[in-house]
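Quick entry, no commentary yet.
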Amino acid sequence: MTEDLSPAERYAAARKRAAEQATALADFREMYDFGLDPFQIEACTALEAGKGVLVAAPTGSGKTIVGEFAVHLALQQGKKCFYTTPIKALSNQKYQDLAKRYGADKVGLLTGDNSVNSDAPVVVMTTEVLRNMLYAGSQALINLGYVVMDEVHYLSDRFRGAVWEEVIIHLQESVTLVSLSATVSNAEEFGDWLDTVRGDTEVIVSEHRPVPLFQHVLAGRRMYDLFEEGEGSKKAVNPDLTRMARMEASRPSYQDRRRGRNMREADRERERRQRSRIWTPGRPEVIERLDNEGLLPAITFIFSRAACEAAVQQCLYAGLRLNDEEARIKVREIVEERTASIPDEDLHVLGYYEWLEGLERGIAAHHAGMLPTFKEVVEELFVRGLVKAVFATETLALGINMPARSVVLEKLVKWNGEQHADITPGEYTQLTGRAGRRGIDVEGHAVVLWQRGFSPEHLAGLAGTRTYPLKSSFKPSYNMAVNLVEQFGRHRSRELLETSFAQFQADKSVVGISRQVQKNEEGLEGYKESMTCHLGDFEEYARLRRELKDRETDLAKQGAAQRRAQAAAALEKLKPGDVIHVPTGKFAGLALVLDPGLPAGRSNGHRGFEHHDGPRPLVLTAERQVKRLASIDFPVPVEALERMRIPKSFNPRSPQSRRDLASALRTKAGHIVPDRQKKGRAAAADDREIARLRTELRAHPCHGCAEREDHARWAERYYRLRRDTAQLERRIEGRTNTIARTFDRIVKLLTEMDYLRGDEVTEHGKRLARLYGELDLLASECLRDGVWEGLSPAELAACVSALVFEARVGDDALAPKLPAGKAKAALGEMVRIWGRLDALEEEFRINQAEGVGQREPDLGFAWAVYQWASGKGLDEVLREAEMPAGDFVRWCKQVIDVLGQISAAAPGGSSVARNARKAVDDVLRGVVAYSSVQ
């Protein structure tokens, strides 16, 4: 080929090759036994040229190569590189990878749990650790040249996302930032913001998957391709799937079949044939099918921990074996080596032997409720090909390196903490992105199981859409405020916050809203003209109609409010043992009051504050269900029909207890028929204002217009558009300087509480600056008021647990068990201090619904961590806590993290600092200590 070039062209090509070989990238490429993709080369070239980079590419495409090139550049230039990840498991994994490549002496690890070689030139850490370093002005930041932010799309996370923006904003200008993200639809917008706050940033977007992904639907005995094979980029949905969905939709339901008993024999035969073709295969059947098709290893995503464990058991009961004898022996060797430090008595509690049996057969679960050591073993065995079927929750999709040949989704619906919702295209992309192992598989496979009501078009939309917008979740916090003011003063801090991605997005959105306002104003003119009436002022007539409608609505609301108040007053009179009749709702009928419930006002639910109009009684229904009812279940007042004694031995979690008491309830009061409520006269019938407005309407000239209702329809459109326009104008006003306004309110509250005095941070403020977490201000106030003085280490651990723990369940459970004595008093005082802070936040318009402020402390983990810190065995602690080992370990580690902060923030000579350090040692034992770096 070079023979075709002229001498000048050959000389130019030789010079280009020589220049490329002299670059750091050339040395770096020699470290890998495979060639780099064009997007990797483009990103690495930009990095070597001194630019920051944002790389957005699909899962498994190899974007971490760019992060590793930043490590290579830092070592070559004699600078430091910090490699940040969102989760500890990913940090541990990356530490192992880099230590293997560059040597353990050059790589360190810093997470909330571990500190390994933290002075090394390359340190892997969680993003929170780097944020804390920046605020503390750590010496480790000296000579920092590069920061890699892996999984940077995490800044959309509503709970932790702000940390990513804090780091990006506060890093020194001299630091080159490498941002690695999943494929997002607004990468250019995010890149524009990075360019604004970090300087020259190259945006590299790659949609290409190195291993192509094929989409399938498994229905009955057959696996269907989701898309038809065809030319062009626009793929058509497989017509077989569309036809099956149409057939299933036309199939009569059970009720329809009962109603149509006289169905013709031919129809019955057609239905039998349909049913024989379409069903949802069982989990063992799916794995066997994938094994026969050569599609293992596979990850099956099930959005429930319990269902993941159940799936493994179902496969074991079905006699499924995916490993031969040689693989089984190898699995046992690895497992015994990795779990050698766990005592035998703990192994029994942790379900070790059942877990091991699944692993030996090549089957495992993976979810947050598992012991971290167990999860790490599953990950290692899966990567080695010794576990071939993993049933996992979506947490596995978050960056952990566990690629598979196939990914199976049982359903396209998941519980989002508040309701069952369809998974988004972004979530679908993240989950199925695991399918296809680079360098091993020629192609990856995503398999969705057929479910009743399945829509092939909906699945095609998920599979074909790449809309995964990156949205900022940035909000100022109390800790952030004092740290910023201490470093930069109030004015400069305010300016810094205005540079956040949140404000950048808000400001851009205002442009579109302003255009809409202009269009609306033009439309208002047209509507006004259309409602003109030749008999009189129709605008005035429309106003009278609207006032009449508003008055009727107000009276109806007042009547409903009165009925609710009467119902709430009746509920407040209930006592344990009262037999009532629930008038409406899912649990209508006979019920026994177990607990009258909370007083009217605010209470803390599992996802933030919930407002209650009155008490929420916990009841046992005649159908043996224990439920906490809401005011909506009592539209009318309720009164006790009878009284019953509740046995002291009654346990609401015991099915036998519920069955016995429900039987006694039916025997005692099953024959009682409640009185029916009489409906009163409507308030609107006697209202003078309504009578006056109706008289004026009838007397108005426009009332007699033949086209009155036509004019009224235009008037209604006019007022609706005017209302919408006013709302848009309020949104414009609300979106400009939103972050700074929230910061101003936080600063005013902190000034009121003597944490700040102008630009000066007081002693109290300096203590707050060392406390990170959702309840930073509450922790600071507890230290300030001496709430924890005189507590033992175990009692202090119990109190600190209330700052970090959040129950996964709602508030249907009974009050949690608490340690007696000083700990119980201190926990009560913490709740009272929170009440005082909550009132202050309301006064200063700091709204927790917007992600700012202090949630109520949750006491649900206090007894478990108290028992553990007091030296009790794992079996006893987990049995009483009714909590999976993985959750127990995770919450203990969060308690340890905050205890460490408290020991640093508390006055040096105080018993709190001393006992916090002792509590860390008492909690960091047994299973809690096992999950360190292997």
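second:
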Amino acid sequence: MSGADIAVIGFACRFPGADDVWRYWSNIEAGRVSITTMSRDELLRNGVGESEVDDPWYVPSRGRIDGPGRFDADFFGITPKDAALMDPQHRLLMQTAWEALETAGLTTNRPFGRIGVFAGSGFGHYLVDAVLKDPDVAGSHGLLAAVLGNEKDHLAAKLAYRLDLGGPAVTVQTACSTSLVAVHLARQSLLAGDADVVLAGGVSVPFPQDTGYLYEPGGVLSPDGGCRPFDATAAGTVPGGGVGVVVLKRLDDAVRDGDLVYAVVKGSAINNDGGAKAGYTAPGVRGQVDVLSRAYANAAVEPETVGYLEAHGTATEVGDAIELAALSEVFGGRDRPCSLGSVKANVGHLDAAAGVAGFIKAVLALHFERIPPMAGLTRPRAEIADGTTFTLDRRARKWTDSRTRRAAVSAFGLGGTNAHVVLEEAPARTGLAPRPRQATAVLPVSARTAAELEAAKARLAAHLRTANDVSVHDVALTLQSHRRHFPYRHAVAAEDVPSAVARLTDPAGGPAVKRPNPVFLFPGQGSEYAGMSAEPYAGQPSFRSDVDSLAEAATGVLGFDLREVLLDPGAPAERVHRTDVAQPALLVHEYALGRLLVSWGVRPAVLIGHSAGEYAAACLAGELDVEDALHLVALRGSLMQAAPPGRMLAALTGEAVARRQAREIGGLDLAAVNGTDNVVLSGTEQAIDELRARFDRLGVRHRMLPARRAFHSRMMADAADGLRRAPAAARGRDRRIDVVSALDGTLLPRGTRRDAGYWADQVVAPVRFLEALRTGLATANPVLVEVGPGKALTAAARALPEARDAAKITVQPGRTSPVVAAAGALWAAGVHVRWDDVRQSAAARIPLPTYPFARNEYLLRPPAAEPVPVAEPAEPASEPVLAQVIEVWLDLLGTAGVLPGSDFFDLGGESLLFVRMVARLQRRFGVPLDVDALAATPTPAAIAAVITAAPERN
């Protein structure tokens, strides 16, 4: 590995017959020709004149891509009008660049940083044939906007602006060699340290693309619509369209960062033929020999070590003959032939995208260790028919080589700018450090809209159905840490790929909460079960560490090891539900769960405990030392266990009804108010039996709780006295997190502490969970998180109208539910999660489907896009000036929903468009307007007020 080696870590393309890299390779490996022959009717519908179609020299063939005018303008913050003004080539390159960055694992939530762009495009047919012919363009946008949207000068810089790339952004234009020259310049930029990562590529799509061409005898175009490079029957090339982008990075950096490396660029060279050739458009042997020789010298490898050469190969008589002459001079004297290919046989000549098309093909050949065939081959030209120096393959074959596999790519531009790049197979991927195996992986999928989220889920599921030997943990790593996360989210917890595919069909929720504030809810006694800690204990090291240390600390107090009930699903239920066992077990379990969530990066804004759950909340808030809390809870549990026998009944009725029944029966107390119609009563067994009979007659639904004591009632008075005397209760500290008291529902802010009497009062007083929950819900953008076994507290919240819009997450909704699934649910709700801390399994980044861009059509021609709905303004724009300002905005932005209070820049407008809007209003109203002043409050209402108040109008 040399310090000059450059890694290919990502790529994306749209070429004839292929919407992505993998379909492209499938077509190449199959020897499939993707040049389209169009029917007469199709050509006429596409605007080709009848006389031209019927011309005997007209060839109705071209390499076409699907939907070149379709674009996701909103994704890139571009208004519909600006998108329609922009050359489709520029838009295609922008989307493809994003996809390439996704395949490289670089589209995270962090800024891209020093990523450079070297790219070029084909001729601007759209500017000539659509933009400049549209009579409204000059008036509505101005010539400068048309130039910025179409001129090649702005291709790379505009891409860098829209994607926020901080490296060099250089437009490259060398005709047919453009995109391979871009690869060379990108490599040089990396070696010079100008960038850490570089995008290189090109795009060429004519407008319109659904046309053929007129064949000219002696010209470069094929008379029959076939392109057969180095074939004895070759007669010319066929035009095609496409776009390709590759992502390059210094190999040392790529290995350090764990990137998936597809191939390595060993060396490259560019030059020009100069005047030593027949004419400006003719190729030159001397120039090609020179660029080949210097590329191998630069790579420090011999040409004879190259096993596959992706040639320029235009299938023209002069072009192929000169290229073979140069290749033979450089490659002559080999002991075995080099396989020769040209992707133009598959897709046609892609002009500015031709070089990158060949480059991606050669990279994939190295990656898959396959020699691709020459599509449509009949018989080789005479110069290579003997197969001594070069051979043409009719079928794909395994690339077997005892030496390091190497490939090379040529591109020769019209005008004489030549490029040659030498490639080598990627080094073996280094082994991953072993980590504890986590049974369940979390796959987060997101998009900007609900429809695009469903498309992303479907695209991922389709990919996983056909993927071979894919680890669900590799999928999780790639989605968690190497994809940008958007507002609409769906998370899948799965043990393997088939279960992930099945769960990707589950319906997604709404958009993530903006600036969410997690509210942790800790359940009390009654939620416990045997083995409740077993699953997180097995898979989460930090949880296991907390449980071990706390259980060992509690052993001296309790006289037994809490892990006997926390980890053993077979522990006797009567033991688990004993008050003196259940309460310390819940404290250990819930405190460890809360700490686990915090270790994942989840920062609670408010903590609420239900009965015994208040101890876990106090410990997580830092108010109680956890060992002091263990002593208190152990004492509390033993004192409550020693209380007289009693029972507890949950009923779906209101507090007033419950209190009336308690008074009439006697021996009963209100123990908890969990909702407007959800209460718990405690008392003697006799009183509870009579209450059950009354509720049966009244039709009130109810259920017995497993507790065998009457918690939160007068029967706990002795327990309260014992707690009041406990020294540990007096050792409270100032809280670091806000807590809501379940005694009365008041907010206990951080920086304060409760007195020792609180824990005694808490045993006899009713649990005011309803009031506490309402206080928690008053937090801005609350996300309710039940931190403990079961889902009773979030279920109670669902019955509250004020909690209807709050996300509700249960960490352990069922006995077999993996707690890691809660990380996915929290992330889907908008809560920040540190995925590197969530993941516990060794994993590697893998290729996955890229973003499902919306396919909206933006073209300056009779409307083909879906009509834009016109939203009714929220407030009337009846004032003449305001109505006219909004009218100008609608015309310039081309978007619906402009209201008096709308912000120009939030609607996608840019500074240049804002200046144009102000100028138009000045002309319309004849008043001077200060652009900078208006930009401070860029709304129609504010601008209309300035115009109305102008002295010139009065």
